[in-house]
Known about the structure:
By secondary structure, this protein is α/β, with parallel strands linked by helices. It has one domain: Nucleotidyltransferase, domain 5, CATH 3.30.420. Helix content is 48%, strand content 25%.
Amino acid sequence: MSMRIMGLDYGSKTVGVAVSDPLLITAQGIETITRREENKLRKTCARIEELIAEYEVGRIVVGFPKLLNNDIGERAKKAMEFGEMLKRRTGLEVVMWDERLTTIEAERTLIENKVRRENRKKFIDKIAAVFILQGYLDAVSDK
């Protein structure tokens, strides 16, 4: 029984969601969950729980946006709190994954694929989640 892994890109108003295939080789973007206010997370968590059930997720990887000098800034603290909350709510293992370069990579991918700037915002979180999860999957498969 294979369990998929979910990747999450946590932002102040959005959470990008990706899931792995059952063989844990590739990551696909699923959706971007949007909320009106940063701290209103109930619906966001409920939606994540629905997706966990739907995709039979056994582990969650949350992007951990450390600063380039390795410090943990405000965004990284919020991501950690979000990870802790998900662990409590879902009972699943939550891995914090260094995502410093993923948003830059995601942006570059969208530019290379000629996605127009006004449309990029729609995709960036979901693609960042794909990069976070793919980075994790690649690292784990090398072990």
